[in-house]
Write a structure and sequence with these properties.
InterPro entries: Gal/GlcNAc/GalNAc_ST, P-loop_NTPase. One of its GO terms (molecular function) is N-acetylglucosamine 6-O-sulfotransferase activity. This protein has 448 residues and is of the alpha/beta class. It contains 24 helices and seven strands.
Length: 448
């Protein structure tokens, strides 16, 4: 019946037309239908690319690098909270309360280029305006910290005062990450974390390597980042390792208009200069290379030498990390204790030459009695052992988080853990290689 009705309607419409006119109408109709079909195919293709349901844009999270960034763009456009229904460009846009993505396809189509620009700006270098805006975030935090300082530490913030420079020297798996973070939690600290990381699992002892390391260290301590291409390139490829320990700067970069400000030499130089305390933590620099800085009184340098029982150090290297096993500077107890023995001789001389600027700390003392030991260290540095730092120490030494890089671990339990982890034969091997070091540091030797 439906087919017959269509045929009758077609005869009624076309029957009275001349053959040539009828052919023209047919051609026009086919052209119109073809055009409509192409439009339909185009929209179906776009829909397949960005499928839209009645409630949510399914592909938004993948196509635009996450719903949160997209919701931020919506908020920027509408100037309101993105978790509500809002009107943007005259259209109502609903934000899914859980997935946090837009639900109106028309809005997505209209603003897709703007959203892509929002994402692209995170993959290009920061411009001067973005650098200045990020610096202002750093400046606000530093100024807030300054206002909370006691008179003991406030002198460091005086205009023209030489920054306090603190160099924390040790070797891999000796507890330096925890101690470095304790010091970095003091207000006004710019934390240069492992500046020689680009050298890999290798110690810097002498020769050209030593000269280059001393040059880099001097420039970083003086907030001179321009020209440090190797350092900046490594920081760019390992941002969280290199800058994640520098909370004020890291947060400013990620809350600012372009996170890539963190890799800009001008930004790092100006940000660094705002901080009255420069802290370097390194596991790759041997102690003999620090005298150059201690000998220059204008540097206002203090060196903290952190040591640990070599049996515990080797146990941690064997059992906690995988990158150490095929690197002689890390996997060999003979190399470890040869370095330690040389360091201890240097430490004796530095303590005599610079009693107010050099100190040695044993990991075991920190682990078993952290609060008094940190208090003593803060006094040596001329800094305040504040309630905030006391809480940080308490929090990070009284819980059990068994991760090699965690600063939150029950530290007293880790002092003797090597006795459970190392086979007795391995203990004897390390003790034979480290006899002089164990004796100097007064560590008990387990019987043969």
């Amino acid at each position: 019946m439906r087919v017959a009705a269509i045929r009758m309607l077609r005869r009624a419409l076309l029957g009275s037309l001349a053959p040539r006119t009828r052919q023209t109408v047919r051609t026009a109709a086919i052209a119109i239908l073809s055009a409509l079909a192409l439009v339909a195919i185009f929209h179906l293709a776009k829909l397949a690319e960005h499928p839209v349901s009645e409630n949510v844009v399914d592909g938004a999270g993948e196509d635009w690098r996450g719903g949160k960034e997209f919701a931020k763009a919506v908020a920027d456009a509408g100037g309101v909270n993105p978790v509500q229904d809002i009107w943007v460009h005259g259209r109502k846009v609903a934000i899914h309360p859980i997935l946090n993505v837009p639900v109106d396809r028309d809005f997505l189509t209209q603003d897709v280029e703007r959203i892509r620009k929002l994402n692209r700006k995170q993959s290009r270098p920061a411009n001067s305006t973005e650098v200045e805006k990020t610096l202002e975030l750093v400046r606000q935090t530093v100024e807030s910290d300054r206002k909370q300082m006691s008179s003991k530490s406030l002198r460091l913030w005086s205009p023209g005062e030489t920054p306090l420079r603190v160099l924390l020297v040790t070797t891999w798996r000796s507890g330096s990450t925890f101690l470095g973070q304790v010091l970095a939690n003091h207000p006004g600290v710019f934390h240069h974390y492992e500046p020689f990381s680009s050298r890999g699992v290798r110690q810097v002892r002498s020769g050209r390597d030593a000269f280059q390391a001393q040059q880099l260290l001097h420039r970083l301590m003086d907030c001179q980042f321009a020209g440090q291409d190797e350092y900046l390139n490594y920081t760019r490829s390992h941002p969280e390792d290199m800058l994640g320990h520098n909370k004020v700067v890291w947060d400013a970069c990620h809350n600012g208009p372009n996170a890539n400000a963190c890799f800009n030499a001008t930004f790092l130089t100006k940000a660094c200069q705002m901080f009255p305390i420069q802290l370097v933590k390194t596991v790759r620099l041997r102690l003999n290379l620090t005298q150059l800085f201690l000998n220059d009184e204008k540097m206002n340098m203090k060196v903290v030498f952190l040591v640990r029982d070599p049996r515990a150090t080797m146990s941690s290297r064997y059992n906690s990390v995988s990158w150490c096993s095929d690197k002689p500077d890390c996997s060999s107890p003979e190399v470890l204790c040869s370095d330690l023995q040389a360091d201890l001789k240097v430490a004796t001389a530095l303590k005599q030459l610079y009693p107010q600027r050099f100190t040695m700390v044993k990991y075991e003392d920190l682990a078993t009695d952290p609060q008094p030991q940190i208090n003593n260290l803060m006094n040596f540095l001329g800094l305040e052992f504040s309630q905030e730092i006391a809480r940080y120490v308490e929090e990070h030494t009284q819980v059990d988080v068994n991760s090699p890089w965690s600063t939150k671990r029950k530290s007293s339990d880790r002092v003797s853990m090597w006795k459970k982890q190392l086979p007795l034969q391995e203990v004897h091997t390390i003790q034979n290689a480290c006899e002089s070091v164990l004796k100097t540091l007064k560590y008990e030797v387990i019987g043969q």
